[in-house]
Design a protein that fits this description.
237 residues; alpha/beta; Rossmann fold; 8-stranded mixed β-sheet; two-stranded antiparallel ribbon; globular
């Protein structure tokens, strides 16, 4: 039995990220995690060009160590993806911040995330006050993310289902973030963008590019951001 169709007040996250850079290994304990998170924001994000204060504050506030397995918590603030089970990973912090900043999410925006994973990306989107909808095709991950988000108090609508279809009954969306790579941009997701809406998505198979598609006055405008490596998007095109 899945979550399909039901709005669960809690979110979802990333499936994979780009290559790791300088890591940060925190001292365990609340104070150690807070200090490691602050270093992560300064050394991994701000130092590499993430400048939106809303994104930096969300990354400073959301406890990434709560979204990884206990055995990986001492690496929670390293600049690398980490396994979360079911052959999936949580993206490196820089990729989460980059995608959030590229999506230009504002308080009150309606945002769709495709690929809940651990729930971390959804929490980062919800922290500044966005109305977040998240879809996860792997049911055990969806259930685990829902439990984590509920425990931490993040209000996100979460469902188990096929992200290729989007969430048409909740559309249109001001922003859509996809955390796994399809070979081509799914038309259903483009159709669910509001005027001015942004779709941030890794596209490709062997070689992937992070793209942002924006619904402008004259149609869809596409911009290429950076080369990335995500897990393949699962489901029906």
């Amino acid at each position: 039995m899945g979550f399909a169709g039901a709005g669960i007040l809690l979110a979802a996250a990333v499936a994979c990220g780009a290559p790791a850079r300088d890591g940060v290994t925190p001292t365990t304990g609340t104070g150690g995690f807070e200090a490691a998170r602050a270093r992560m924001v300064e050394q991994q994000l701000a130092a590499r060009g993430i400048s939106d204060p809303r994104v930096l504050e969300a990354m400073r506030a959301v406890p990434r160590h709560e979204f990884v397995p206990p055995a990986s918590r001492n690496q929670a603030y390293a600049d690398s993806p980490l396994p979360i089970g079911e052959d999936q990973t949580i993206s490196q912090p820089y990729i989460v911040a980059l995608m959030t900043e590229t999506a230009a999410v504002r308080s009150g925006d309606r945002v769709l995330e495709v690929g809940t994973g651990s729930g971390y990306q959804a929490a980062v989107l919800a922290a500044p006050g966005a109305d977040v909808y998240s879809i996860e095709i792997v049911e055990p991950l969806a259930r685990r993310a829902a439990e984590t988000l509920a425990r931490l108090g993040y209000r996100v609508h979460l469902r188990h289902g096929d992200g290729y279809r989007g969430w048409p009954e909740a559309a249109p969306f001001d922003a859509i973030i996809v955390t796994a790579a399809p070979p081509r941009v799914p038309p259903a997701l483009v159709a669910q963008l509001a005027p001015g809406g942004r779709l941030v998505i890794p596209v490709g198979e062997e070689e992937q590019e992070l793209q942002v598609l924006r619904r402008g006055p004259s149609g869809i405008e596409t911009r290429h951001v950076v080369s990335v490596r995500f897990v393949p998007m699962v489901g029906g095109p």
